């Protein structure tokens, strides 16, 4: 059948691939071989990944010490908010049977603390924290202003509830010699948080920059006295503060507190032996029946001990292989009739 | 101004009186009591909106849609109460959807405005203050005298005053109104017909009284009172003096008429009705699903609210020291808080109702419908017609048809009449090679050779019978015989309404017959194709009266005066309407012959005549005049007079013309049956004719047991017969049954025994209804529609008489045939030939159905995936309404990240080769009864959505929630990273799921699928890479980049995507192995018909040059596509093989590696 295609008078539709729905196309049509080999490949890949992850998870050393019960006296003291100015220290010793090699990270961990409540997450002022306007407290309810009407800096519920226990790790070289394990505070917060998202207002003097603002009600001292020794760690750019301000997704969470400074005895990591934590107990958890813990952990290149990921890979791999075997059985049984498997 | 406001608001007062009085040229009486009637102006408004009311009216229209209204409510709730998500998240998509729809509707309305303005601004000539003034069409007022020239369209409904002819007649064609292409003669009253100049018209003092506007095109009653020399002359006005707006003046140089109906009150405007909204089955199930999801949404919100309060009963959770309430929150009332909490949850989960579903569906339908018009296979070369889509709302309904109701003439047949046989005075003659030959020995006639009638051959070819020579009698024949034949052919040639229009000359002479010697320049207009075929142009007869055809009488007649002076009545019509009135002639023999003709599938007409004495004629003339000028009940009176005239006839004979079957009708009907579609033929023909056509077109088989329900006279008889038929069907259900019903029996059966009748019908594989009136056709369809199974019906027809059934059926298809355009215009789809139905249903219908069904299911699926993690997260944040995702992600998920793959899928998907679909009509059964949208599949998709959501959420929860550090440097992630992880897995999974559903991978599919994922990553990097100065929350700053810098996160993403799809793939594989559907089996058989995966990305078609260059670059970069692909592309000069896939699978392409 010969058709005139250039006849503009006629209503003959254009003979293009698009209009005739004949675009060159690949028809997804998977044969049994393709499907089965794909499944076997995925199954094997998952198993392999699972084993690798399992091994790397196994290589991680982790110590967690829950000190809620162990510091019962301090905890009781903190139940009563009027005792805020009373110091309370608590020492917990433990024994490390195996040395922790490589970088060791010190975390604090809270149980039952909901940092993901809607009003709580909202209650912060990014404009204030980036140093543009110290007096911007718009979203900070219910911690906007102090009783005498001054805007709070840093305002909001998150900042107000900042974790303020101090944790010191001692290495008990022998029964009488206690060496303080060297820890560094740097690189505990995201780089971008520390250097972009959180900035002090620009003034020659930090305390004058915060003039006309009040400290958060729960804080013992104003923000410009967080670390008076290190100006790079004072005010809003305090590492502990920044870490706290990144709200956790779930009620049980841990936050990075310090890193091991690998010098002297600790070049290789933490040697085996007995240690003790000296904790300056300030943060009250009893009122919401929460718990506090300290965690010491080593890491691999992909992060902490993710046993779950390893197991998930193993299970998926196993199930995939199982499915592929059963599919192969079905396929062999019905081979005479069917050539294609999927689509 | 006030009037305008009233009009806009529709407050126009109802007309007080039953008639309107029009003073011609607005010359009101100078004295006497009179109240001027108010008439509207001549503006035609087909547009819906004006500049002023567009915004409010369009918004109102749009918010009448449930989904839009729902989102408006959500938006308002967000504005009013303190909610977790910003109003932007639902406001922006809503704004987007509303804007897109408004732009589309505004554009359509703008086009209507343009055409309105063109019509309203057209120049017209109006007689005013003694001169001819040119003005705009919209300025015509009732009472104005309007001049219309040849080939112009009448700007309003006019009463004809005068034309350039002395008798005041003119010819018009009403093709654009009712699709009839014949010329209609309209006449002016004699008193005004002489006023042929403007000056003369200026002296006219007359009043027209007529009925108020009504929609019926063929009814007009009025009278004109003309004051001449202080004397009032009253003349009746009928439809023949009314020139309708939209009709076109033909063969007449100019006319003058007075406007009686203007603007929206013209019959054309009253007949313009916005097409009734047909809703497809898919849309109905879509609404059901929406309601189900609404219930899910509300129950989720209620559960959350209740749990929130159970939780908060404990004080430590209600107000821990670190999250104290504000004064305001403490003081607000409990009930108010409860309600606002419920609303907040509603807002939080509201995305489960997919807002963009409607807009995507609309876009898909609108764009997708182009493919039908573009299809070369639906293009008919001879008539140069392509398929036409009048509504895009019903595309998918084409894949759901269970009953096809088809007209016969013009739909199954060509509607090209060919003269075959005739019976004259009891003798049968056959047309053989242009000669009429007596058929077999005819004992009645002494000499049976009638070959002198040769020139009657090919009656449809008018030039052959243009002369009166056909009546030249041979001398050797007996005069008695000749007389009968002579009369027969006189009847054939005189009794018609055929008009011949000469293109060359403006004047038509004093009759149609004289100019017929120049056949090449003639145009023929006839009100029925039979007549056109039988026209004979030779007469020296004076036409006295025409008794027009009407469907009740089923006959027409003319009264002529022979040259000898005797007055004769010639009648022709259906045999059932002629034979009972006959008192002379060979009635019995003719009846037998007519039945024989009908058995051969020929269309028959009977001829009869009657001679009047002059006294009889006098009376007839008087009664006719009285009836024609009656103001009241004119139609009834006319019918009475006709009845009086058309009796005591003498039968002359019968003619038989053949209507050829269209190409491939048998194959198409066979294919429809194989597809499980029941085909009913509804026709106005005699039952014998209809049955024989049915047999020849494969509708009835020889092996079928044909049941008949004919000529039922009474209810009880009909019931009894129906009972019998039902019994017979029950007794032998092995063989197929066909049912023949005629119109009268049908109306009896439908009146009292609907249920029984439907029972019988449902058990018959073929049903034929003959002798059907147009409204009966529609009624049959309505009956089937409302029967318990609620089947989807399709009606296909070509004539104005099929319009009612086309509009009644779920899908109406018009054939663009010879009987005008009315069916095509009122249909949902119009095609040129019946055979195209198979491609329209089996290929286009099937594709559209699969596409839209998947579209709907997928939309619900992806929104379940989207919102369920949000719901689950509430269990971990004390139901504090904290969102899992950032507001921007919430907003863009449906409109950016996941919208394009599904849209492109729903436009391009071909789950199976169109050829296979066309050749295997049984595949159509696989999608019947809305199977893809059944509760089972819906449940499957929903459960799939929930399970995927659980995998995303808990997978991420066990990864992050178990407080492991995922970064190599020991730093921790926060809640926003967790949400982003879930969201990333979700976007990838949901897109991959779409990829899994796609069978047909063109380069566009590749582009949008991988492009969507890529876009998500690029967008997230960009969005998270900057501290946006105008956003108060900087939640997402560097969150995505941090997430991607974690190895564990990558492993988790891969694992979760694999796990999600794994379940689905395994299910698909086992389904396919154990319960393969026919479609899946058919997919196996098409081998070697596809091209390699990468090729589909590389090989671009010629139309997409911009992309092609990118593609070629890509090819060079990848270096995989061999040069042969580049050279091979589609071009217009390619030899055209209809849908032949072989060109797509050149061997070089197959051998290339991917």
Q: Roughly what percent helix of chain A?
A: 25-40%
Low-confidence stretches of chain B: 10-15, 441-480, 499-539, 1097-1111, 1114-1154
Q: How many helical elements of chain A?
A: 9
- What share of the residues of chain B does DSSP label as strand, in percent? 15-25%
Structural class assignment of chain B: alpha+beta
Mean pLDDT of chain A: 86
Helix content of chain B: 40-55%
% residues in beta strands of chain A: 15-25%
**Under CATH, the topology of the domain at 382-414 and 659-835 in chain B is which?**
Rossmann fold
What integer is the average pLDDT of chain B? 78
C-alpha end-to-end distance of chain A: 34 Å
Number of strands of chain A: 14
Keywords (chain A): Glycoprotein, Membrane, Transmembrane, Transmembrane helix
Family (chain A): Belongs to the CDC50/LEM3 family.
Transmembrane segments (chain A): 35-55, 303-330
GO biological process, one term (chain A): phospholipid translocation
Descriptive tags:
heterodimer; A: 343 residues; alpha+beta; 5-stranded antiparallel sheet; 9 helices; B: 1154 residues; Calcium-transporting ATPase, cytoplasmic transduction domain A; Rossmann fold; Calcium-transporting ATPase, cytoplasmic domain N; 9-stranded mixed sheet; 42 helices; disordered C terminus; ATP binding (chain B)
Architecture blueprint of SSEs:
The complex is a heterodimer of chains A (343) and B (1154).
Chain A: E1 26-27, E2 30-31, H1 32-58, E3 62-66, H2 72-79, E4 89-96, E5 100-101, E6 104-111, H3 118-122, H4 126-129, H5 157-160, E7 166-172, E8 178-180, E9 183-184, H6 191-197, H7 206-209, H8 239-245, E10 253-260, E11 269-270, E12 273-280, E13 291-298, H9 307-333, E14 340-342
Antiparallel strand pairs in A: 2-14, 3-13, 4-12, 5-11, 6-10, 6-13, 7-8, 7-12, 9-10
Helix pairs in contact in A: 1-9
Chain B: H1 2-9, E1 19-23, H2 54-63, H3 66-80, H4 87-120, E2 123-128, E3 131-136, E4 145-149, E5 157-163, E6 169-173, H5 175-178, E7 183-187, H6 190-193, H7 198-202, E8 206-211, E9 222-228, E10 231-237, E11 242-243, E12 248-250, E13 254-261, H8 267-271, H9 281-312, H10 315-318, H11 327-331, H12 334-349, H13 356-368, H14 370-374, E14 388-389, E15 403-407, E16 413-424, E17 427-432, E18 435-438, H15 479-494, E19 499-502, E20 522-525, H16 529-534, E21 542-550, E22 555-561, E23 567-573, H17 575-578, E24 582-584, H18 587-599, E25 602-612, H19 614-629, H20 634-645, E26 649-661, H21 665-674, E27 678-682, H22 687-696, E28 705-709, H23 715-731, E29 737-742, H24 743-752, H25 754-762, E30 766-770, H26 774-786, E31 793-797, H27 803-808, E32 811-815, H28 822-826, E33 829-831, H29 836-874, H30 887-897, H31 900-908, H32 914-919, H33 935-961, H34 975-997, E34 1000-1001, H35 1003-1024, H36 1039-1044, H37 1047-1074, H38 1078-1085, H39 1093-1098, H40 1105-1118, H41 1123-1127, H42 1147-1151
Parallel strand pairs in B: 15-27, 15-31, 24-26, 27-30, 28-29, 29-30, 31-32, 32-33
Antiparallel strand pairs in B: 1-8, 2-3, 2-4, 4-13, 5-11, 5-13, 6-7, 6-12, 8-9, 9-10, 14-33, 16-17, 16-26, 17-18, 19-20, 21-22, 22-23, 23-25, 25-26
